[in-house]
Amino acid sequence: MIFREAVRADLPAVVALLADDVLGKARDFAVVDEAYERAFADIDADPRNFLVVADDGGEVVACLQITYIPGLGRHGAERCLIEAVRVRSDRRGHGLGRQFVTWAIEQAKARGCGLVQLTTDKSRVDAHRFYARLGFVASHEGMKLVL
């Protein structure tokens, strides 16, 4: 298993991972279209954004996105935002998610980030337990405004 930055050829597998859960099925995940192509190109071109995949012998089995955010809080330290963590349904429950998120945390430490943050949907109770076991604390109430 290797964790590597995604390439354009990985995009269909990443979109499939995003759709491979209850919330994903309710959202507008379909085929790879121009919007996905544009978003991938923007992420790929941004030195603070990384779409990462778990590659098992050439097969994409998990993904996540890392964004490094500069800020003045915490004495100017960058923070790492981890989003879109997905493990293919047939690979869940075997430690891959733990290994992958731990790897992402190590990347943030190596970069000198002051903290790692993430959001998880309130309905994802299993995910909340998963992140708590990794040391994350539900310290803030997040809010979103869909545009």
Note down, in words, how this protein is organized.
It contains 6 helices and 5 strands. With 147 residues, the chain is of the alpha+beta class.
Order the strands across the largest sheet as they lie in space.
1-2-3-4-5
* CA-CA gap between termini: 38 Å
What is the chain-wise order of helices and strands?
EHHHEEHEHEH
- Helical region count? 6
Query: If you average the pLDDT, what whole number results?
Result: 92
Residue runs with pLDDT of under 50 for 5 or more positions: none
Number of strand segments: 5
Strand percentage lies at: 15-25%
The whole-angstrom Rg is: 15 Å
Structural class, from secondary structure content? Answer: alpha+beta
3D shape: globular
The residue fraction in helices comes out at 25-40%
Major sheet details: 5 strands, mixed
Topology, element by element:
Blueprint: E1 2-5, H1 11-19, H2 22-26, H3 34-45, E2 49-56, E3 59-69, H4 73-76, E4 79-87, H5 96-111, E5 115-118, H6 125-133
Parallel strand pairs: 4-5
Antiparallel strand pairs: 1-2, 2-3, 3-4
